[in-house]
Amino acid sequence: MTVEALDQVGAAEAMLRALGIRHVRVRHHGDVARIESDAEGMAIAFAPANRQAIADRLRNLGFKHVALDLEGYRQGSMNAPGLITGDPS
C-alpha cells in the first residue's frame, strides 16, 4: 500500500468517525473504497443525509466508487479469497 493510499484511508476513516461511526474500516481496492462497520455504523452511513455526503467526500479523496460492505467489519477481510479481484476461490 502506498503512502497516498494510506492517507486516503486515514482521511476517509476520520470523516466517518466524525459522523459518529465508531467501529469502521475503509478498505482500499484501487479506485474502490469499501466501508466495513458494525450494524450501528451501517445505519448511520446509510441514512439519506449521510449517504451522499460520504460518497462525495470519498470521491473527493480520489475514489471512483464507494461501497458499504453488508457483511460488516471483520478482521482479516482483505485476505479473503476472491474479494474484489474476481478470483473464484
Describe, in plain words, how this protein is organized in 3D:
The protein is of the alpha+beta class and 89 residues long. Helix content is 42%, strand content 18%. The chain has helices at residues 3-18, 39-46, 48-60, and strands at residues 24-29, 32-37, 65-68. It has a three-stranded mixed sheet. Mean pLDDT is 87; it is low at 85-89.
Which descriptors apply to this entry?
single chain, 89 residues, alpha+beta, three-stranded mixed β-sheet, 18% strand, globular, disordered C terminus
Largest sheet: 3 strands, mixed
Gyration radius (Cα, Å) is: 13 Å
Q: How many beta-strand runs?
A: 3
User: Structural class of the helix and strand makeup?
Assistant: alpha+beta
Overall shape: it is globular
- What's the helical proportion of residues? 40-55%
Low-confidence stretches: 85-89
Strand order of the largest sheet: 1-2-3
Distance between the termini: 23 Å
Please render the helix and strand layout as text.
Blueprint: H1 3-18, E1 24-29, E2 32-37, H2 39-46, H3 48-60, E3 65-68
Parallel strand pairs: 2-3
Antiparallel strand pairs: 1-2
Summarize the structure in short:
The chain has 89 residues and is of the alpha+beta class.
